[in-house]
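Hi L., both proteins are below.
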Amino acid sequence: MLTHRVIPCLDVKDGRVVKGIRFQGLTDAGDPTDAAARYEAEGADELVLLDVSATPEGRGHAVDTVRAVRAVLSIPLTVGGGLRTIDHASALLDAGADKVSVNTAAVRDPSFIDRVAGRFGSQCAVVAVDAARRIGGPGWEVVVHSGKERTGIDAIAWARECAARGSGELLLTSWDKDGTKSGYDLELLTAVSEAVNIPVIASGGAAHPDHLVEAIHAGASAVLAASIFHYAEYTVGAVKDVLAARGIEVRRG
């Protein structure tokens, strides 16, 4: 039976964990190294660290933050936010990231995915797909710059292209659901999962373990959450207990 991963996400701004709704209204949620150590102790399978202000502010991810988090972490670490160049990707990997996540730069120049995968391997190349329901029409479109810019690019077609260009995994976030605690966009998740043959990480909207169960049934290989962990509503271990009780295979110990 396929084992599903539970992945806490640390959205970081100015060296602090933050949380908002639809990428806006960010509030402080603690120190990233403290959170990383706690989540590993609770049984997290991996950790995602995203600098949510790097792209809007036109800068790269703070390598020092990555290095500090890696110092307290032994589980796999994916890092993204403001990644624009191969040299920057290399610096993040050297600082302790196991995978790098690309988003806006890949939308601007899709060949960037090929270059990251070609240089570091597909297992290191995660593409973050931020998708919003089209206004006045069916389906979803890709959004960038923390959701401020709608690109008009069909999210399903983009997911297929990312996989074809060598991405080893997709981090799929519903802009409409992010931070709302109303559950993942299951329709979007199923559509993307059925369109690609690589793992899809569900992100955006989880409020309780049942939402994670729904995401896995909708096709997710892994489930990512932030608010429910940051504010100690649930531990990672408690979430895994619920998943296991629902017949979902999770990693233990």
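That was the first. Here is the second:
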Amino acid sequence: MKTFRAAIDVMPHDNLLDPQGKAVSGSMNNLGLPEITGVRIGKHITLHVEAKDKHAAEAKVDEACKKLLANLVMEKYSFLVTEG
């Protein structure tokens, strides 16, 4: 068995409102940063997984995202698995 590290990003679907992102985006002008717009806020998750190979590790991470880490009705996710 090898140890793999996963970096997971969970974000609201593009067609859904993001109240946190909207509030932060609206505050950028007050901070003197009017060039920054369209802020979207999500989650970044890192974890380690023991698996026989990278493909098996990716399958486990995908399963974890679908079952627990992301609400698929409201969120999308992407991840990168690396050895070590």
